[in-house]
Amino acid sequence: MIRVLIADDEDMIRTALAALLRLEPDLEVVGECRDGESAIAEAERLRPDVCLLDLEMPGLDGVDTAARILRRVPSRCVIVTRHARPGVLRRALGAGVDGFLPKSRPADDVAAVIREVAAGRRYVDPEIAADALSDERSPLTDRELDVLRAGSRGETIAEIAASLHLSAGTVRNHVSSVLGKLGLASRQQATIHARERGWI
């Protein structure tokens, strides 16, 4: 029996997916969560074989949640999303995620991916993988992406600096570098640009 934890802030989708997976004879849904922090706590408590994580949840997103779970629990993680951009795929794989598929896939496919991942294999949706091979790579450094990510909800320079343990001047330098590389006029534009390409 493959034990599965599901985390998705959309109640209808989460409960429907859980109900469909419970019909599978070899899958057991052991927990459901609405956000990343809860998913980490439940993964530590329940030790599921596979964590099925929505990409966009309040607080921690699915990729950050997976990275923290994988540091604490010997589970495998699958990201499910309606925003399947190649840049997000690269970030997910870099975090050690084992599966990545769009929410548009039927429940039977989700069950099949869970089995694949539980058996030790990786799964990436073929269309997303093809897009990733031809997609534009980010010209920004990891630290510049950290700055954009930390300020993606309109945080001030001081707040970004505090969250990344940097000085305000260093953050300003990173922002200036980002705007120069992207040829944009504001941090907000850079954040939107990076998000649309899945860099953050």
Structure description:
There is one protein chain. Helix 4 (86-94) crosses helix 6, helix 7 crosses helix 9 (168-182) and helix 8 (157-164) crosses helix 9. This protein is of the alpha/beta class and 200 residues long. The chain is elongated and about 55 Å long. A six-stranded parallel sheet has the order 2-1-3-4-5-6, sandwiched between helices. It has ten helices and six strands; from the N terminus they run E-H-E-H-E-H-E-H-E-H-E-H-H-H-H-H.
Put the structure in a nutshell.
This protein is of the alpha/beta class. The protein has helices at residues 11-21, 36-46, 62-72, 86-94, 107-118, 126-134, 142-150, 157-164, 168-182, 187-196, and strands spanning 2-7, 27-33, 50-54, 76-81, 99-102, 123-124. Helix 4 crosses helix 6.
Order of helices and strands: EHEHEHEHEHEHHHHH
Q: How would a textbook summarize the main sheet? A: 6 strands, parallel
Identify the overall geometry.
elongated
What's the alpha carbon Rg, rounded to whole Å? 18 Å
- Widest beta sheet: strand line-up: 2-1-3-4-5-6
Stretches where pLDDT is under 50 for at least 5 consecutive residues are none
What portion of the residues fall into strands of 2 or more residues? 15-25%
Instruction: Give helix % range.
Output: 40-55%
Q: Specify the number of helices.
A: 10
* Strand segment count: 6
| Secondary-structure class | alpha/beta
